Amino acid sequence: MATKLDYYAVLEVTREVSSDELKKAYRKLAMKYHPDRNAGDASAEERFKQINEAYDVLKDADKRAAYDRFGHAAFEGGGGGPGGFDFGGGFGGGGLGDIFEQMFGDMMGGRRGGGGRSAGADIQTQVEITLAEAFTGVKKSITIKTRVMCESCDGTGSKDKEAGVEVCPSCHGAGKVRAQQGFFVVERPCPSCHGAGRVIKDPCPACHGVGTVEQPRTLEIAIPAGVEDGTRIRLSGEGQSGGKGAPAGDLYVHIAVQASELFQRDGSNIYCRVPLRMAQAALGTEVEVPVVDGTRASVKIPAGTQSGEHFRLRGKGFSVLRSSSRGDMYVQVVVETPQNLSKRQKELLEEFEKEAGEHVKSSPEHAGFFSRVKDFFEGRS
Fold first, then answer.
1. Subunit notes for this chain (predicted)?
2. 60 with 67: CB under 8 angstroms?
3. What whole-number distance in Å separates Cα of residue 62 and Cα of residue 237?
4. 170: helix, coil or strand?
5. Residues 116 and 233 in one domain
6. What is the pLDDT, as a whole number, of residue 107?
7. Which of residues 190 and 314 earns the better pLDDT score?
8. Strands, E assignment, 165-240
9. 150 is in an annotated binding site
10. In this structure, is residue 42 part of a structural domain?
11. Which of 198, 232, 257 is the last residue of a domain?
12. 274 & 242 share domain
């Protein structure tokens, strides 16, 4: 068995990384190595799987603590790899209590169905959506490579179906054996049947005794309005088949929301930068701005508005997950300095500057700053 890489090294972070920095590192790497952007590159696909596995563990405080203390041994035998949040925010596992139960109880046994058979593996994939799709919600069709039950043997793995399957004589169908390790008795997969609990005499030629065959499958997933970048949706039972008598694994869909050229999102609030000419900011004006829902809104800019000021539009922000309410929109004014002036424009600005110098009240911050600068130097003399 290949040695697993350190989860922190996989995400290219240190062990002291904060949760926010961890999330940023994950998003960057997931986008870089996503299979859709690296078609036919097996190494990129494997890297993508490693990135998702590492993030599934380190983003959860309990699992991260267990990993820091016990390493990969804390999650061996989970059947489908490290557990995680489902879309509703619940755990796929139950925190440290379940981790210790796995280590010292059903260690490496995995989820099992009837007859002691292990559940199918979980599948990870990623879907990119636009900010507009995240606002309204959207349905997306995805095609995944998965394993389905072999029709030739009905998932038994035997050429003669049930007739060619016998209970494993080593573990008596349990799929696991007990071993003494110091003060503890640890259960491990049976070496004779590899945890299956059964022995196949004549393997099925179609699936080679596995009970499942690889096959592409297309699914339609509903992404709700208000979903955030980095959200993981769990589709129970849509992973790989575990064969006859065993439950299927789960499908985890990671949502990547594309950046917008107009808006920046912060939770349920939306920010939009609007450039103004110097005269517009000085005299006051009214501007029309785009809204994330595709409509327009009018914003009155009072005379004397300074660069960086915000104007709030209530209820014009982003949709809130599982709610009919919306956040707010903030319009940030950016006052631009004119460039490539004509001769006449320069003359007008020179006249304006001369007039402004004689009436300092028209630029209170300017006057106040240089007054403080004067006091500063006089105090040092």
1. Homodimer.
2. no
3. 25
4. coil
5. yes
6. 35
7. 314
8. 165-167, 176-181, 184-189, 198-200, 212-223, 232-235
9. yes
10. no
11. 257
12. no
Q: Is residue 178 in a domain?
A: yes
> What would the DSSP string read from start to end of 62-89?
HHHHHHHHHGGGGTTT-SSSS--B-TTS
Q: How confident is the model at residue 296 (pLDDT cuts 50, 70, 90)?
A: very high
If asked whether residues 233 and 325 sit together in one domain, one would say no
Strands 269-277 and 329-336, sheet pairing: parallel
State how far the Cα of 318 lies from the Cα of 229, in Å rounded to an integer. Answer: 13
Choose one of 257, 291, 326: the last residue of a domain.
257
Q: Please tell me the predicted confidence (pLDDT) of residue 101.
A: 36
Determine, yes or no, domain membership for 263: no
Examine the domain organization and report whether 136 and 285 are in the same domain: no
Other beta carbons within 10 angstroms of residue 2's beta carbon come to 4
Domain total for the chain? 3
Residue 368 and residue 327 share a domain: no
By C-alpha distance, which of 45, 60, 50, 40 is closest to 10?
A: 50
Is position 272 annotated in a ligand binding site? Answer: no
Mean pLDDT computed over 22-36: 85
**Are residues 109 and 167 both part of a single domain?**
yes
Q: Report yes or no: 346 and 354 within 8 Å, Cβ to Cβ.
A: no
Residue type at 270? I
Q: Place 264 in a pLDDT band, splitting at 50, 70 and 90.
A: very high
Structural domain containing residue 369: 351-381
Residue 218 above 70 pLDDT? yes
Residue range 157-201, pLDDT digits in tens: 787 766 667 788 888 777 788 876 666 677 777 877 767 777 777
364 within domain boundaries = yes
| Per-residue confidence band for 373, with pLDDT thresholds at 50, 70 and 90 | confident
Give alpha helix (H) positions in the chain.
7-10, 19-33, 42-58, 61-70, 96-104, 131-136, 278-283, 343-358, 364-380
One domain, residues 188 and 108: yes
